[in-house]
Specification:
Blueprint lengths: L6 H7 L6 H32 L3 H15 L12 H14 L14 H21 L5 H18 L7 H17 L4 H10 L16 H18 L6 H11 L8 E2 L13 E2 L4 H11 L2 H13 L14 H6 L16 E6 L4 E6 L2 E6 L4 H4 L13 E5 L2 E10 L11 E4 L4 E12 L16 E2 L4 E2 L8 E16 L2 E9 L5 E9 L4 E3 L3 E3 L6 E4 L4 E5 L2 E6 L16 H5 L9 E9 L1 E7 L1
Parallel strand pairs: 17-20
Antiparallel strand pairs: 1-2, 3-4, 4-5, 5-6, 6-7, 7-14, 8-9, 9-12, 10-11, 12-13, 13-21, 14-20, 15-18, 16-17, 18-19, 19-21
Helix pairs in contact: 2-3, 2-4, 3-4, 3-5, 4-6, 5-6, 5-7, 6-7, 7-8, 7-9, 9-10, 11-12
């Protein structure tokens, strides 16, 4: 059988020009990735067979297939790839349960199976279009896997918001190849719930990681392969919102996330092909500028879940993505942007940026749990390479933990964060609620549980009110004023500044905190954190002593679980005692 003329060559025949530099970059990096797969795919097979995790094996197979079918690759129709590809596909088939799912921590997990099915749909399409006789058996194996997986994806459940759209994307392409009325029925049932997009453009999980790696790609598949072209608008709005959380070095702000990335670094390249696709579709110069910037940076940048070499398969699946970008427009680099739906303010002045955050879920739900926004960092700033990753306030008040704002409001000259917390002393139960046997229900005192029937006890409250005013004062400088007051609120507190590792901390008023590596107390004067030619100077210190120890109290919820709220980096504590009025300057 003679292979068809496919992919980029076929696109060229339509008269659409190619972005040659883009294709060459993807091709070269994909070849490097393929070499790594050939050298190390045995580990992916072990992971699959020992733990039931199919995603690594599927991605390895996707990489091999991409360079095998690509006419411009040195691996084009290379026989050396066929054996490893067959091993990976056969192992995927062998480890697939009779219900079509892979283990992924359960007796068949529909949602996590869908990740691999999305990739296998793409792989099957590339192999079918290539139609090389040598891959006949490989195609048959992948077809069996997909046909077996479809019914379970059409009946199985999910456990996160983004999984709904992922399962829909997996089913849409199976249905396009092997129609079954159960597939669109399930897709419609999920889509009828409505796309969970907030007014500011973020999805309900507020997670750049999951927007980039799951939700946006899934919605684009549904737009292309299921006819839901209205979903382009959701992706467009998310990418537009993302323009305001991009850092100059290619990171993306995550402090507002409700998922695991709320304390992790996410990198812009994960959005790369989404910006490229929507730039080509809409002619949006801003989106084109992001795509062009990522292409220019090439391999000299940090990638996230998807390396640059893995993207060739996606472009071969959608050759029109290889067309030249429209004319770029200037990216926003001088703005104050308020996303009220996340209670996040982003300020950028060239290479100087800052984030003000008051949108944790804790004040409303009084819980710390996966899926909630609980990061107590309320301010971050950057001056070039000098990065303050976190500013937090931790009063030692009834062990209630860090300050988490109940609101974020615009003032005449800045932004106001505020919160009020109460701790109770409990009095004897009224006669009607007393029990001679002492067997009272186990109830919650908001910080711990006890068999004391707390709800029916008279209480004597102590109250701590916190107000934080954040003001930009020009030149990358900020003033942050703190006012802590209330009835019976006297308690130690610590303001914790955490700087990105890699710099030098100086200041005559700095003292190491015993037993806490890379942690200092600023007792007096100012200190400076310097990285190269960039620096952040901050202060003043606020004394020391037994009544204001250099201790960060994460709260009883965290302490009991032996959890840690200690951010990675170089930490500086400025301590005090409420009631307190204090102004921190950062410049």
């Amino acid at each position: 059988m003679t292979a068809r003329k496919t992919f980029l060559a076929a696109l060229a025949d339509t008269g659409v020009p190619l972005d040659t530099a883009f294709v060459e970059l993807l091709t070269a990096t994909a070849e490097t990735s393929a070499k790594a797969v050939l050298d190390g795919y045995a580990a992916d097979l072990v992971e699959l067979r020992d733990g039931g995790e199919a995603r690594a094996a599927t991605r390895a197979l996707r990489t091999l297939v991409s360079v095998y079918v690509h006419e411009g690759s040195a691996y084009h129709h290379c026989a050396a790839l066929l054996g490893p590809a067959a091993e990976l596909a056969d192992a995927l088939a062998e480890e697939q349960y009779d219900n079509g799912l892979w283990e992924h921590g359960a007796d068949g997990n529909p949602a996590d199976t869908a990740f691999s099915v999305v990739d296998l749909n793409l792989i099957h399409h590339l192999l079918e279009e290539d139609a090389h006789e040598a891959t006949t058996g490989l195609r048959a194996t992948i077809e069996r896997i997909l046909r077996l997986a479809g019914p379970s994806l059409a009946t199985g459940g999910v456990h996160t918001a983004n999984h709904r759209w992922l399962v829909c994307a997996a089913l849409a392409r199976i249905h396009a190849r092997w129609p079954d009325p159960a597939y669109p029925e399930r897709i419609e049932a999920w889509l009828a719930e409505g796309i969970d997009q907030l007014p500011g453009g973020e999805y309900s999980e507020r997670s750049p990681n999951y927007s980039a790696a799951v939700t946006n790609p899934a919605l684009l598949v549904l737009a292309r392969h299921y006819g839901r072209t209205d979903l382009y608008a959701n992706v467009r709005d998310n990418l537009a919102a993302n323009l305001y959380v991009i850092e100059p070095n290619g990171e993306v702000e995550t402090v507002h996330s409700r998922r695991q990335d709320q304390t992790r670094v996410v990198h812009l390249p994960e959005f790369w092909l989404q910006y490229r696709e929507m730039a080509l579709r809409d002619g949006d110069g801003r989106f084109a500028a992001v795509a062009a910037l990522l292409q220019e940076r090439g391999t000299d940048q940090t990638f996230g879940e998807t390396s640059i070499g893995e993207r060739l398969a996606q472009v071969l699946d959608r050759p029109e993505l290889a067309a030249p970008l429209p004319e770029v427009a200037a990216l926003p680099d001088d703005f104050e942007h308020h996303d009220d739906s996340c209670r996040l303010v982003r300020v950028r002045r060239g290479t100087h940026t800052a984030s003000v955050f008051g949108g944790t879920d804790f004040p409303e739900l009084h819980a710390i749990s996966s899926g909630l926004s609980t990061n107590p960092t309320f301010f971050k700033m950057r001056k070039g390479a000098a990065i303050l990753d976190s500013l937090r306030l931790a009063p030692r008040f009834f062990a209630l933990g860090h300050f988490r704002a109940e609101g974020l409001e615009r003032t005449d000259d800045g932004w106001r964060l505020h919160a009020e917390v109460r701790g109770a002393f409990h009095h004897p139960l009224p006669p009607g609620h007393r029990r001679p046997d002492g067997a009272y229900p186990l109830t919650d005192d908001s910080r711990f549980w006890s068999a004391m029937d707390f709800p029916h006890r008279p209480k004597e409250y102590r109250t701590l009110r916190t107000e934080v005013l954040v003001r930009e004062v020009g030149g990358g400088a900020w003033d942050i004023s703190f006012d802590l007051s209330g009835e019976g609120c006297a308690s130690p507190l610590a303001l914790e500044l955490c700087f990105r590792p890699g710099g030098t901390l100086t200041g005559d008023g700095l003292e190491p905190v015993p037993g806490s590596p890379d942690t200092f107390q600023l007792v007096s004067g100012e200190a400076t954190y310097t990285v190269g030619t960039d620096h952040i100077t901050f202060g003043p210190g606020n004394g020391k002593g037994g009544r204001q120890p250099a201790v960060v109290d994460p709260g009883e919820r965290y302490a009991w679980l032996s959890g840690s709220l200690t951010p990675d980096g170089v930490r500086v504590l400025i301590t005090g005692r409420s009631p307190l009025t204090y102004r921190l300057t950062l410049r």
